[in-house]
Specification:
There is one protein chain. By secondary structure, the protein is α/β, with parallel strands linked by helices. It has a single domain, classed as Rossmann fold (3-Layer(aba) Sandwich), CATH 3.40.50. The protein has 8 helices and 7 strands; from the N terminus they run βαβαβααβαβαβαβα.
Length: 229
């Protein structure tokens, strides 16, 4: 399986990069913000799409607002929003909203005009965003997937399952990123940082410091590039 090389950001081989988690709350949003900040600092144009936002009311700030706050990216696209904090297809059914379709989502992403188009999923790779998963979307747009994973116990299993699903679908993996690397990692985290690339056969291309989501934009953008490669 192809993975990013050392010393470069994990999106340089494709204009579109999908960001998937091994589960929920592993740091997809802050990782997406860090990628956007690093690309903007390098002089590239960036667009970020969140196909389906759940658990947020109509006028409340969602994940895209957080990415914009941290990175400064201004071109963002959200295709659907549902109030219940559930998988998007379940949340859509509960509120009587139509499901997103693979074709409309892929078309919207492909129409974004930027050097780098980041697409943040919802939860894990196989969570249904509508009538499709993020894995289906990656195949449809022909883009690699960056896998954001946790640092602690359980991450080896979750990460290997996710990478195996990508491999089975012939979707390139752009690498693994630890979405929240603790300031004082315990034994499990230290071992996992060594073992993740060994068990998945995919390079660990970055680690985002725990608590970085609380930083101001200046500090965040000044250091984001150093978290990759």
């Amino acid at each position: 399986m192809r993975s990013a090389g050392r010393g470069r950001l994990p999106h340089e081989h494709s204009g579109i990069l999908l960001v998937a988690g091994t589960s929920t709350e592993v740091g997809k949003t802050v990782t997406s913000a860090a990628l956007a900040a690093a690309a903007l600092t390098a002089g590239r144009t960036v667009a970020v799409c969140k196909p389906a936002q759940t658990g947020v009311a109509a006028r409340e700030p969602g994940d895209l607002a957080e990415i914009s706050r941290l990175s400064g990216v201004t071109q963002t696209l959200e295709l659907a929003r549902y109030p219940d904090p559930l998988a998007p297809d379940t949340a859509a059914r509960r509120c009587g909203a139509p499901l997103l379709t693979l074709d409309e989502t892929a078309t919207a992403i492909e129409q974004l005009d930027a050097d780098l188009v980041l697409v943040e999923g919802a939860g894990g790779l196989l969570v249904r965003l509508g009538d499709f998963t993020l894995l289906d979307l990656a195949r449809r747009v022909g883009a690699p997937v960056l896998v954001v994973t946790a640092a602690g116990l359980g991450t080896l299993n979750h990460s290997e399952l996710t990478v195996r699903a990508l491999r089975a679908a012939n979707v390139p993996c752009a690498g693994l990123v630890i979405g929240s690397w603790p300031a004082e990692p315990d034994l499990a985290a230290q071992c996992n940082r060594h073992d993740l690339p060994r068990v998945t056969e995919v390079e660990l291309v970055g680690a985002v410091p725990a608590g970085a989501a609380a930083w101001d934009r200046a500090r965040f953008c000044a250091t984001a590039s150093s978290w990759f490669g």
